[in-house]
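Hi U.,

Before I forget, here's the chain from the pilot set. I'm dumping it here mostly so it's searchable later in email.
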Amino acid sequence: MLPAKHFYMIRHGETEANKAEIMAGSMDSPLTEKGRAQAKSVQNIVKALDIKPKVIVHSHLSRARDTATIINEGINVPLYEDKDVAELHAGDWEGVSYDVCRDLLRGWATPPNGESFAQFCKRLQRGKTHNLNKHDGPILIVCHGGVFRGLGGLYNLRTPAIFKNCHLYEFKPAPNDSHFPWEVWTHEDEQTRQECTIFHDSEVSKEPML
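Structure:
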């Protein structure tokens, strides 16, 4: 599905929409002060990596762009914007309370006047393939919570929606017989790296998701 190359991925810092517990989707929502502090904290983690990103790719939404800019103050690499790694367009659910639409999104329902999960995954596939092939060395993708679930969807995995703001995930190519072609690690601080089994433990959908 995607080039099995080494890369990093992170969800943006906390936003005003996150704080208010409303769905942002393709709507712009700025970082809170806490979100900026989260980005500053992960800047130190990225700066301490043995193998650092060669470039940072972020979506066009300000929450991802501003998170990427803060992180990049520690490593000073080229920044690239790509709309294909933006959050799912949630249509009529944008600006709506999580309580109203959380279960619907977790069930992969299509938002009214929004983007279906299949459309979303195909867009992500296009963007990630382009960026993984274009850039030498590992890239850091600064994106959105839905993008993690979309990555699972490309491999027919029902990945849970439990990706926190500004947690750094490292994807390293796995053995060829693996259904999901990466080993995944989280970097909790400058010294601590833990294996993450979210993707490998996810349920494989009985029906094609794309």
